[in-house]
Fold this protein.
Amino acid sequence: MKILVCITHVPDTTSRIAFTDGNTKFDSSGVQYIIGPYDDYAIARAVELKESNGASVTVLNVGGAETEPTIRKALAIGADDAVRVNAAPTDALFVAKQIANVAKNGGYDMILMGRESIDYNGGQVHAMVGELLGIPSLSPVMKLEVDGNAAKMSREVEGGKEFVEVAMPFVAGCQEPIAEWRIPNMRGIMTARTKPLNVVEPVATDEAVAYVKYEQPAPKAGVKMAHSVEELVDLLKNDAKVL
Amino acid sequence: MSILVVVESSEGKLKKASREAVCYAAQVGGDVIALSLGDTPEAELATLGANGASKVLNVAGSFSSSEEAAVAVSEAMNSIDANLLVMAQSAKADMIGGRVAVKQDAALVSNVVGLPDTTNGFSVKVSIFSSKAFAHVALKKDKKILIVSKNTVDVKEEGGSANVEAFSVSLPDSKVKVTGEEKASGDILLTDAEIVVSGGRGLKGPENWGMVEDLAKTLGAATGCSKPVSDMDWRPHSEHVGQTGIKVAPTLYIAIGISGAIQHLAGVNSSKYIVVINKDEEAPFFKAADYGIVGDAFEVVPKLTEAIKALK
Ligand SMILES: Cc1cc2nc3c(=O)[nH]c(=O)nc-3n(C[C@H](O)[C@H](O)[C@H](O)COP(=O)(O)OP(=O)(O)OC[C@H]3O[C@@H](n4cnc5c(N)ncnc54)[C@H](O)[C@@H]3O)c2cc1C
């Protein structure tokens, strides 16, 4: 079985979100980068499947050279090799086209990724990759078991979950509790250094969207503290008018 | 210009977010045509006229995969010559949108929180970084897809009723087989709820959720929780709110025994009002709250439930 796991390289969840150059650029100074938390579930599930069913796991990231430490972390968690498409991930369709281009001749049985990135939160790439490759795409997938040439999954739908069966190959956008996050161990970190990381150039596409300007949310007015339950109820009734 | 709006319903009733999407399209301006996939009653669909739809296309049948749904949506766009597709944000809309964007070679943006600005091209405001910031995004293709967040526009009811027409498409064979389903507990959907009552690790154990449920019931609210609570299986994962869980945007969010970690806040900061109940006056959640009370949840919550009952 061959598994492709697509990961994003995103600011740590505790990062201060700020912008520079007249609010036209994300301010990355002092920001720590991590594997997207949802992608981290995808890589963890891929490594579990490798251990239980036998599989080769390739990680893929669309990004500049600065993402390589993040890619090495995925290798340390247990992926076998990596591909970096050397381009800034400007929009969902651009990224999807790069992934589809790498995947189309790779013979992957499944392509896993997070349900969404935590920077732009688009949640579109898995569907686009599925469409570009002409294969099913499912998201958010909370459970994934391999059964012969098919996979059994549960996915979140509004108001509950749905159990589905789908033949390989497919694309899945992952979400907990599909797997437990893995922390690389010392041996993983050592072997990751020598695992292959191939850099390929992007395929050209035209621009679909452009991020023109950024904006911070207006600050909260400040909390009004109640000193008794009666006072709280009064605030909710007469100040917020929600009761 | 024709605008297609895909609408969703649950238990035969159109979702409020879908009505908002129709109103949004009406405010953009153009001939607004709705598309319903599945089996919403015709009488219900006709009421979309009041929200601004001139016509509703109705595709009967069940859709087990986004591939099938995307074929129907894309063909409907072609048949009415739409260059704009609007959908209310949902797991389904995201899945369909990505596929239609490829089929139509369209520019797609999601998490839209404002009406388009067309003074110079076509751009919209979207929320990014889990609502910690916003961006203005220009859509650079002739065809455009907007996936709109809840509460972006108000629902207006003014027009008459819309004509409902059957729309038939030949769908591809689905490769996805649905083998079963499980309903989440509780009657109110977390993502749709106007009020959410959430509990955190401060509640000590699953046996203490009775008071959370009582308060939720009194308020007609959905229940949520923090990540450790669902990780420890005190509550189902479907209730996990935050950056890596469900993002909610209710009118009122009540957080009980939740410290207010940045990852939790990322899932709730689009709420209109936040109430924090915590015994620690230093809890970071108070900084993100509109109203707060310092106290032991085991005393405050039952009292609050009684006081609200007394009001009603
Ligand atoms: C990548 C990443 C993603 C994450 N995603 C999420 C996410 O999506 N959602 C999420 O929630 N977390 C998420 N987390 C975890 C997050 O960092 C916090 O650990 C978590 O939110 C804390 O949950 P809590 O507030 O319930 O528990 P705690 O932080 O332990 O807080 C418990 C609170 O209860 C109060 N308390 C205790 N007893 C009482 C009492 N009797 N009455 C009243 N108050 C009381 C305490 O004062 C304290 O403030 C994520 C973490 C990481 C690293």
